[in-house]
Design brief:
The chain is mainly β. The protein has two helices and four strands. The longest helix is centred in the C-terminal third of the chain and has 5 residues. It is flat.
Length: 97
């Protein structure tokens, strides 16, 4: 007897590489500040961190802003900063109209 299951949305393989994760919903992004712990690349769930010429490199097109890298970096060389620092909201602020 077959069981009827609801249809749920799923991501197709490779979709993270096709659509920049941070382009619409990332609130914070990592900034590399002399990160010397190369093993931090093993913790990134999206593969946004890699080692290029012996240094940690970041691909913001793959980063979703989870902050795991900043948490696992032993030397404090990765800091999370707000993705957007401009005026927020849809309506103009009084005096800036």
């Amino acid at each position: 007897m077959a069981k009827n299951l609801p249809i749920v949305p799923t991501a197709k393989p490779g979709s993270m590489a096709e659509t920049p994760a941070g382009s619409t919903w990332r609130e914070k992004r990592p900034v590399l500040m002399n990160c010397t712990c190369l093993e931090v690349t093993l913790y990134c769930p999206d593969g946004a961190l890699s080692i290029v010429e012996g240094k940690v490199s970041l691909d913001l097109n793959l980063c979703k802003g989870c902050g795991i890298c900043a948490n696992e970096c032993k030397d404090g060389g990765i800091q999370m900063v707000p993705e957007y620092t401009g005026a927020q909201g849809v309506f103009p602020v009084k005096g800036e109209e």
